[in-house]
Records
---
Amino acid sequence: QVQLVESGGGLVQPGGSLRLSCTASTSMFTILVASWYRQAPGKQRREWVALVNPGGSTDYADSVKGRFTISRDNTKNAVYLQMNSLTPEDTAVYYCNAGLQFSNTSYEATYDYWGQGTQVTVSL
């Protein structure tokens, strides 16, 4: 069964940087459109952060524009989120969400998947 696997979270001081990664657990599925979301402590809803299309075009939430960069490496079937100039307000669990396409000679389908989340804490 395919999974989205996230990594790269951790503890960083204000002004620091982190790079999150998101990969599919099997090469049988291809990442199509992918987004990063985050859920801050005490918040019930996940906040959309950034999106990258299969062709590489991107979009960002206003709160991270100019500080975060989403990218993809189709050869590695991976999506990344480079986070710079981090502030305590960026503290959250970050989730990868992607459309995963399975395709063979007789069947093609796309499924929506979420990763398990990775904790990002920005603090002194």
Note: The longest strand covers residues 92-103.
---
Amino acid sequence: VQLQASGGGLVQPGGSLRLSCGASGNIRDINVMGWYRQAPGKQRELVATITSAGTTNYVDFVKGRFTISRDSAKNTVYLQMNSLKPEDTAVYYCNIVGRRRTTWGSVTFNSWGQGTQVTVSS
């Protein structure tokens, strides 16, 4: 299963961006979709997740500013980022966990997107 992320860019503090990540492949179902980020010199960290039931989870530093959503029909997850701060600058990665079809049934997959750069600067 391959993921393609897009939507990053340069934005001024207080601005907004919307990231998208679509999955392609022989997907049977998706359990969890999420966004992570990695700033220079730091470890990758969780930003937000959304389950197949629509339950969302956010880390404290993005609550009230970021919104994760999904389009199940398109196997796509979104991250709407508002009130961006310079400390939000990072490479953002999407992650999708689910099951894909095989010849004999299905297997679990855990796939990552290629990363999209978000830079918040005046």
Note: The mean pLDDT is 96.
---
Amino acid sequence: QVQLVESGGGLVQAGGSLRLSCAASGRTLSSYTMGWFRQAPGKEREFVASITWSGSSTNYADSVKGRFTISRVSTKNTVYVQMNSLKPEDTAVYYCAAGPPRAGIRGSEYGYWGQGTQVTVSS
């Protein structure tokens, strides 16, 4: 089993920054791809970013490219997403997820999920 715990959410003004963290525990994550997803009220969950556990490959949704950066510290079993130039449309609950090495942008590809952390961006 893998347990994922997100932190770092909060309220920020448009143009501001936040860094979300995802601490993983349980089974070794040496071969997992880690992803961040988000879900806004009344909308479907959407892919934000992913990173292979080696860190050699990252992927971003077009809506966050150039503003968000995903990273990981394998020795700490932690994944981060640095969110800059935040917009009101970034408001959502952000979820961390762990999946097999080839997990992509679909939530169904990920088997483990955290409980989510709320990000609210005011205009």
Note: The CA atoms of residues 23 and 76 lie 8 Å apart.
